[in-house]
Amino acid sequence: MPLALQLMPILCALMPSLDQPQTKKLSALSHALLTWYDGNARSLPWRISPSDRRHGIIPDPYRVWLSEVMLQQTTVPAVRDFFQRFTDRWPSVHDLAAAEEGQVMAEWAGLGYYARARNLHACAKKVAGELDGVFPKSAAELQTLPGIGPYTAAAISAICHDERVGVLDGNVERVLARFHALSHPVRDLKPELREALTQTVPERAGDYAQALMDLGATICAPRAAFCDRCPLLPGCRAAKADPLDFPVRPEKKPRPSRFGHVFVMRDMDGRVKTGTRPRRGLLGGMHEFPGSDWTEGAEPGPQFPVEGHWKQAGKVHHVFTHFALTLTVWRLDLERRETGPDWVDEERLGDLALPSLFRKVAVAAGLEIR
DNA sequence: AAATCGGGGTG
DNA sequence: CACCCAGATTT
Fold first, then answer.
1. What domains can you pick out in chain A, each with its CATH number?
2. Using one digit for the tens of pLDDT, what is the confidence trace for A25-40?
3. Which of residues 19-58 of A touch strand B (CB under 7 A)?
4. Nucleotide nearest to A74 (CA to C1')
5. Strand C contacted by A119 CB (< 7 A)
6. Is A192 considered catalytic here?
7. Which residues of A303-342 are buried (b: 16+ CB within 10 A; e: fewer)?
8. What is the mean pLDDT of residues A59-82?
């Protein structure tokens, strides 16, 4: 066995890790962090500023919940406009619960992770129907609702009711991984980390959670660390070396390349053939254009959906890197007038629950789409 | 425990 | 292009 491998366990044991003294150090710095937050909090549409919060203004749980679900694995810039449209259209949980699921999906189109939209609507119906429109206050109860996991439950209860729970999102994971100089991927010790964080939460639990997240977003950022402006610098282990060495990421597997065909069929009256994807799986429940399966390794045969009714076929290769997916987009202009519920006016494609992938397909096929 | 689920931003 | 982001759910 190579010497390096023999030494590995010893090196790991020597590396600083999550321990009690370090947690106490963070606890001692919590007030410095809150002071930093009072002067440096980001202004966000769903947030109550620390000043307003001190004057007794309480956040609206509906808006906090909506923002937290939208922000799951999604950046603030991407969420802003969606949050504004949702709250304009559905100002309360009752309004959202009364909406058609399809309307919610259509409004969510472009934000990604579409199971979130279905869970969002299911949760709204539950809260409006069974709970008289009042969200539960404790994290434990919140986590029983669809689409609300450990993070979102803690975030809502801390921000809205100052429940003293550890709010552990990607930003806070990074801050803590650096503060403790964790030598293992956070994934492997997330429950311990969340518990340790809970021990440090002060009275202003909501502001503390948001302070840690803002610190991760602006000071202790993924690809940069401005330690000279960090209120946690005095106790931070990574700052003594290179903060960018943390967090340690687990190896990720490459995605296999996939290939497929998509058919953008347009009849003489300007109507386009659409379909609805299964509720489960990739882009579940969203609209689509018909096409082949997306197969690994090699391109499938064209599998044209119509025989002899099209007069012109434009062919465009388009690569969608997000899915490691290469699609061949076919534009089929039909000679015969088609009818049916799946045929939609080209001008109204923008109203559909069409994910970004298929919007790009439409553009690649030469359609006008808003 | 690992895989899956989108899309946009950034260096 | 690779990596990351206010994670949850399914397998």
1. 8-245 (1.10.340.30), 258-364 (3.90.79.10)
2. 999 999 999 999 999 9
3. none
4. C5
5. yes
6. no
7. ebbeeeebeeeeebebeeeebebbbbbbbbebeeebeeee
8. 96
